[in-house]
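User: Mind token order:
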Amino acid sequence: MEQPILILRADNDPSEGLCAEVLRCEGFPWLEERPASGFDGVSPGVRLVVLAGTGFGHTTAERLARAVAAGVTLISTAPDPAVATAFGVSVSDAVTDAHVAVTALNGWEHGDVRLLCPDDTARPLRGGQETAALRADDGERCGSGLVSARVGSGTAWIYGYDLCRTVATLRHGTGDVRERPAKDMGPLTGPRHIYGFFDLSDKLPRDVPVCDLHQDILRTLVLESLADTGLPRLWHFPDAAPALWFVKGDGCG
């Protein structure tokens, strides 16, 4: 059965796999996931295309622009230069530890709270209609963190930071989700370790669940994109299995 949400992966970083998981966690399991390398157009039943990662070529970007002009909604969850250019938006150099704040998004309920885009995940945008602003670590405005562009009958939303890498970093402490070849404990990096607490605790407020709000931005965009489809939000995890957690005396789980 054709799904209304198509996720295209650039397949350049393991964190891209989190895109589908974030959508499922936010109640949108109506999706199909494919690598962009085999993309030749959007099927008639697809209402929303979500791009994960960066590295899409100009041919793919042009095909996506034609699909948007025909009425499909696009959400690019990372600042891909080729995709941005196809919609009249330019991508700037990376900014370390920037903060994004929503400025104009229907249904957004959290105000202008500043959300960390850790490490070099942010590449400010120029052009389009601003939905969220980016500020450098010192508070100086450096461009847009999310913009929309209307093309023909459709709309493209383009992120000025890499959402998947941001989620990986804020959930795991570092954006490196690759396992060590030896599969041992190794240095305090990667999703299996508590490196994030020591590295991020001085950059994040204690009263705001930063990663949850990043996901809320995407959820709000998807809700608007599927508003006229009649699809409910549904939580379905077909691959879920029972799990047992334990904590040893030395604090390692």
